[in-house]
Amino acid sequence: MLFVPWIYREVQRQKASQTERIKIARDLEFQLSEALLRGGEREDVIGRHAGWNLKRLPSSVYWAGIHT
Prior knowledge:
This protein is mainly alpha-helical. The chain has one domain (3-67). It has helices spanning 3-12, 18-38, 58-67. Helix 1 packs antiparallel against helix 2. The longest helix has 21 residues, at 18-38.
């Protein structure tokens, strides 16, 4: 719940179109997952098995949690 807002904050600073920002955010979410796994995290890392084939990104879980 901490990393997703940070990603979107960083993306908002980019001088890019909305379409480009969406792609940047998506790529950063996957890169975050990879970094957590490289750092030794094994549990509760969204996408640890699916990798870049993941259908539901961490941000969708985040937004659903915020809505609730």
